[in-house]
Amino acid sequence: MILRHISCCIVAAGLLLTAGAARGQETAPLAAYGALPSLELVQLSPSGDRLAFITVVGEQRTLAVVDLTTNTSLGAVGVGVIKVRDLEWIDQQRVLITTSSTESLPQIGLDKSELFLGQVFNVATGRVVRMLNPTPGLFPVLMSAVHIRTDDDRSDLFVRAFSFENYGALDLYRVDPDTGVARRAEGMPHNVDDFILDPSGRSIVRSTYEERGKTWGLLIRQGGQFREAWRVAAPLDPPGLMGLGMAGDSVIVAAERPDMRREGREDAEYFDVNLASGAWRPVRFEFDPDALLFHPVTQRLIGASRLDEGGRRYVFAEDTSAALWSSVQRSLPNVAPSIVSWSDDLRTVVVFTSGPGDSGSYRLIDLETAEMRSVGRAYSGIGPSQVAPVQSISFEAADGLTLHGYLTTPPGRDARNLPLVVLAHGGPAGRDEPGFDWWAQALASRGYGVLQVNFRGSTGYGRAFTEAGYGEWGRKMQTDLSDGVRHLASQGVIDPGRVCIVGGSYGGYAALAGPTLDQGVYRCAVSVAGVADLRTMIEYAADRGERRDNSAVRYWNRFMGGDGPGDRSLDARSPARLADKADAPILLIHGRDDSVVPIAQSRQMAQALRRAGKPVSFIELDGEDHWLSRAETRTRMLTETVAFLEANNPVE
Fold first, then answer.
1. How far apart are CA 615 and CA 603, in angstroms?
2. 258-262, 546-550, 567-571, 609-613: which has the minimum mean pLDDT?
3. Which among 272, 281, 377, 366 is positioned nearest to 324, based on CA atoms?
4. What pLDDT score does 267 carry?
5. CA–CA dist 330, 312 (Å, integer)
6. Which of 425, 538, 609, 647 could, after both became Cys, cross-link 616 (CB 3.0–4.6 A)?
């Protein structure tokens, strides 16, 4: 869908953005929580004197651009109802918008998948062009991340694209941001899964993955040719290219290198590989990072960050950046801001905060003058007094493993004898985070305590903790949740007789496994896009890959503890095959456009429960994907979930 130009006033009341009036003391409607963030993807221009962001009203998204020196609008374009996944300045005049849609194209063998498109908005002309679209023979879909390269005279976009004329090649193309026209920059074999470009847009490092041999390779350009510098067996968790090293003459690789372990030292997760010699050197920080930071201009490593229980921590590799970040922290004491965007000179920064009384706020900070300005709030329909308090908790699982999580309690109510909702996260290799969570907040606003447990298998607590979840679907990953219920009951926080379980994706599986595998704990369960039958889920992954033994199948096998789609031992932990054991009513909610967990999973569960004579309700969401990307269907999910909870586990 091509963006359409509209006029829009976005500067009001002395703020960069007025997204809506704050609500008072009354309970906010569920639509305020189900709404898409009214402000997102806030990005500073290279000079730091312009700001681009997406505003959302209902389902309609708008890209807006503001001049920070005059506090006036420079223009806006309506994006419509399509999903905006990323926003990035190309230069001072042009903004790249990345969108996606769920599509099936059987004529080229493409099953239901999320396809990504690139569009460029020119602030000066108000014109919008679509990347790749004008080029004959190219499928106008982004087949890699878009890389921006700018010199004194021009800016270009580099991206891989599918060529119908060149037998389905996935070569690298140089795209003119003014016309969207692409020309082939260099050939890239299909087995290239990532690459790093030099300042001119030429790839200097590539990585390959061989699905048949399950091997990952590192290739370095030397003398005009690529030389394989390293190859390793990687059936799961292949290494990854992160970016350029600090001096620009090396590349940072995330990898396991047991051959480089040193007695008495923690294993390194990142390595600096010299481009000339191919020598590897461990890169260590004062903590184990979950993200690396790269300079917006040089693309070189400048620091790292990690999400802890108190928020995101940062460390920088050079003194200037470290001093600038210290200024940010001094400007925002008692909160843990996260970096959203930086100007090219690192002197101006946009940060995001959320927490007590804050449903999510963006702030612009001038690090030289220490001036701080409000940009806007993510959930403008939820006032400070309506933000439910969140506290970190820790407890021991039945086998003694220490677990962490978060308890959200109803605003203005004592945390005693509460009805509880266990809200299980997806992944399972993911985690819940501190701060404002729209789903947990919506449930707490209706009088429920909400428990979010980072069960074993979650990320963020070290490799050993994640590996402790391997093979534990329906086993210890499940009882970690009910151990959290028992912990809160022992503290008198919740009433153990009034507990339900809710979750999406893997959390949807956990919601179904509660009444069928961990009985006697829950009065009801709500599964959103959940896995119901482990064997058929693996079969789905096998059918979608180039080979049936593909990386997705191996991922599911590892966490489920199975041996492929033919492993009938998985049936003993598949809720759809245990429907006759369900001891609580179940609500199923699933999007028809889900390309991750097919809606057939919920349909199979609904049929099994009906055959077993068990209480079940099933709601199919039109036009919704796996991530609840639409406000209308998100709100409907919340409305149906709350109605189901109130019917089966009333607050009073």
1. 14
2. 546-550
3. 366
4. 84
5. 15
6. 609
Q: Which residues contact 340 (CB under 8 A, 6 or more apart)?
A: 42, 43, 349, 350, 351, 352, 362
Q: What was the pLDDT predicted at 17?
A: 44
Range 122-137 average pLDDT: 92
Instruction: State pLDDT tens for residues 177-211.
Output: 999 999 999 999 999 999 999 999 999 999 999 98
Q: How does strand 616-621 pair with strand 586-591?
A: parallel
Helix (H, G, I), strand (E, B) or coil at 431: coil
With a cut of 50, say whether residue 334 has pLDDT above it. Answer: yes
Q: Long-range pairs for 133-138 at CB < 8 Å and ≥24 separation?
A: 133/180, 134/179, 134/180, 134/181, 135/173, 135/180, 135/181, 135/182, 135/183, 136/165, 137/163, 137/164, 137/165, 137/166, 138/162, 138/163, 138/164, 138/173, 138/182
Write a three-state SS string for 112-164: EEEEEEEEEEECCCCCEEECCCCCCCEECCCCCCCEEEECCCCEEEEEEEEEC
Between 523 and 166, the more confident residue is 523
Span of 16-30, 123-137, 617-631, 632-646 with lowest mean pLDDT: 16-30
How many whole angstroms separate alpha carbon 623 and alpha carbon 625?
7
Cα end-to-end span (Å), the chain = 48
Pull the structure tokens for residue 628: 């609840």
Amino acid at 81: V
Residue 31 has pLDDT above 90, yes or no: yes
Distances (CA, A) of 542 to 335, 519, 562, 605, 611: 45, 32, 14, 21, 28
* 13 phi, psi to nearest 5 deg: 55, 30
Task: Give me the amino acid identity at 387.
Answer: V
- Count of H helices and E strands in the chain? 10, 37
| Per-residue model confidence as pLDDT tens digits over 560-583 | 998 888 889 999 999 999 999 999
Which residue type, as a one-letter code, is found at position 557? Answer: N
